[in-house]
Design goal:
Elements: E1 3-4, E2 10-11, E3 18-22, H1 24-32, H2 34-43, H3 55-61, E4 64-65, H4 67-87, H5 94-117, E5 129-130, H6 131-135, H7 140-160, H8 165-171, E6 177-186, E7 190-201, E8 207-213, H9 223-236, E9 244-250, E10 255-259, H10 263-289, H11 315-320
Parallel strand pairs: 3-7, 4-5, 8-9
Antiparallel strand pairs: 1-2, 6-7, 7-8, 9-10
Helix pairs in contact: 1-2, 4-5, 4-7, 5-7, 9-10
Length: 327
């Protein structure tokens, strides 16, 4: 694999200085709240921060997720299944696609109820349960209906909307990449890991990279991730930069946004990843050793805490009392 420096020059292969991977989700967790980052990447893991208190509870809480994350994951997985089933010879219609997604959602709801009744439940590594439903901060039936409607809207638009026709066609190609783990070493310094939603050679001769979005139109939250995929496409897959086209596909709003990029954008993206990694590296030993004081919680009130799976055991509990009463 031929690596390149910040300016695109070829470099001699060598072992990376930092071996654990940079990912967009890891960087976001660190930026949103260092304490949440500690719980998620160290406190909840069996092999790190072994001596901290509440470790078993932290591990349990790491499986909580909000409705946005649960619905988004199911929608992404349903689209992935749609394409893979087509390649395998089964052409899913919309009813089949929705049924599969609703069944996945029902499985999550059932697991959430099991967890409410048995806190010693053994989760699979990828299992998630609904935070709102677990704590009963919502009316269950209305809440479930709301999520089902979100799933229906996103998948119906994916299946029917003219705006996504080129992406639906491209995803069915035998050569298309679907939910592909992209791993490579950036500038002989840091390993990169991310999951590409969709990549394919279009009929126009360009190479399309598509990021499915299941929420409202955002600003620049995932632009860095898409730019890193552009680095992968040009420097690892050796696709000419002029052919690479980046898209955000907003399913809920039937809208496609093209992310234009230049050499300067790529340079800034690389530097951002380097800076993220250096910051995370400085915290790594403290995380492994379980020195929780090195990870300061953010001030509240804020928009982060209600989305955080570890809100129950955060400093907010100490200051205001435990807001959650499970009944």
């Amino acid at each position: 694999m031929q690596q390149r420096d910040l300016f695109g020059n070829k470099m001699v292969d060598q072992e990376p200085v930092i071996t654990y991977p940079w990912s967009h989700s890891r960087a976001n967790a660190r930026d949103s709240c260092p304490l949440k980052y500690f719980f998620q990447y160290y406190g909840s893991k069996a092999r790190s921060a072994k001596n901290i208190s509440n470790k078993e509870r932290i591990s349990f809480l790491s499986h909580l997720a909000t409705k946005q994350l649960i619905a988004g994951t199911i929608i992404h997985d349903a689209i992935d299944r749609y394409f893979k089933q087509y390649k395998a010879g089964t052409n899913y219609n919309l009813a089949m696609l929705l049924t599969w997604a609703y069944n996945r959602f029902e499985t999550v709801c059932q697991l959430t109820e099991q967890a409410r009744n048995d806190e010693k439940i053994k989760f699979g590594s990828r299992d998630k349960i609904l935070k709102e439903l677990y704590y009963r901060t919502v009316e269950p039936e209305r809440f479930k209906h709301e999520i089902q409607e979100k799933i229906k809207l996103n998948l119906t638009n994916f299946y029917d909307a003219q705006e996504f026709e080129e992406f639906r066609t491209g995803g069915k190609l035998k050569s298309s990449f679907l939910e592909k783990w992209v791993t490579f070493i950036l500038m002989n310094y840091v390993s990169i890991k991310g999951k590409l939603d969709l990549g394919f050679d279009s009929v126009t001769g360009n190479y399309f990279i598509v990021d499915w979005k299941t929420g409202n139109v955002e600003n620049e939250e995932t632009s860095l991730q898409l730019l890193i995929y552009a680095v992968w496409a040009t420097e690892i897959m050796n696709i000419d930069r002029g052919r690479v086209k980046l898209f955000k596909a907003y399913l809920q709003e039937k809208r496609v946004e093209r992310l234009e990029f230049s050499d300067d954008h790529i340079l800034r993206a690389k530097m951002c990843v380097i800076q993220d990694t250096e910051s995370i590296e400085k915290l790594h030993k403290y995380g492994i050793d379980g020195i929780i004081s090195a990870f300061s919680p953010i001030d509240f009130p804020n928009k982060i805490c209600p989305q955080c799976p570890f809100e129950e055991i955060c400093h907010k509990k100490v200051a205001n009392g435990n807001k959650y009463q499970i009944s």
